[in-house]
Design brief:
The protein has 194 residues and is of the alpha+beta class. The protein has one domain: SOS response associated peptidase-like (hypothetical protein yedk fold, Alpha-Beta Complex), CATH 3.90.1680. The chain has five helices and 15 strands. The strands form three sheets. Strands 2, 4, 5, 8, 9, 12, 13 and 14 form an eight-stranded mixed sheet that branches. A hairpin with a 2-residue loop joins strand 12 and strand 13.
Length: 194
């Protein structure tokens, strides 16, 4: 699961070197900063593909509003996303990745742990988006936990290394095959101390 992540200016500077920045009015209208801790319902940066193969950085709201409910759906299981009516079209046609300095997870004892990438590089989380009531919204895909994550939680975001990120954003990718592949991003864990 992924219920909170963070991104700081240092990670954004790294990302800006890799993608062209497109400003969208959503970020200014939201009235919230786009760095620091991101919670479901917050605006956050996402990377989306352009038809020519390049990518751009924009802002969207984290979470789909569930039909006929008030709750926000902010994660989708990679194993079933293609079979869910709410997700399948977006997974097939509107994929994105979410840059993060890291993400948080809590164990059963309510201890908070921080997960970050290796070599101080940002993480890239697989996601997809849709436009609903004039608002662009994204969801983060999750998968079974790897050996680093498993002592804390049994689910984790789908993490993309550079090659997987290119495949994920390509319209020609075999999505079920990509879901089955592990992507080693050098995930590191630390306990959050208060």
């Amino acid at each position: 699961m992924c219920g909170r992540f963070f991104i700081e200016e240092e990670e954004l500077n790294y990302i800006r070197q890799q993608v062209s920045l497109e400003n969208r009015r959503f970020a200014a209208e939201a009235g919230k900063p786009l760095t620091g801790d991101r919670h479901p319902g917050d605006p956050a940066f996402v990377i989306c593909p352009l038809p020519d193969g390049r990518t751009f950085l924009t802002a969207m709201k984290w979470g789909f509003k569930a039909p006929a409910e008030k709750k926000l759906i902010f994660n989708a299981r990679s194993e079933t996303a293609l079979t869910k009516e709410l997700f399948s079209d977006s997974v097939l046609h509107r994929r994105c990745c979410i840059p993060a300095g890291g993400f948080y997870e809590w164990n059963r004892d309510k201890k908070q742990f921080t997960f970050t990438g290796g070599e101080e590089a940002p993480l890239f989380l697989a996601g997809f988006w849709r436009k609903n009531s004039g608002e662009e919204q994204f969801v983060i895909l999750t998968a079974a936990a790897d050996s680093v994550m498993l002592p804390v939680h049994d689910r984790m975001p789908v993490l993309l290394d550079e090659a997987a990120r290119r495949k994920w954003l390509s319209p020609d990718t075999d999505i079920p095959l990509l879901f089955q592949q592990a992507h080693d991003v050098g995930l590191r864990i630390s306990e959050k101390l208060f």
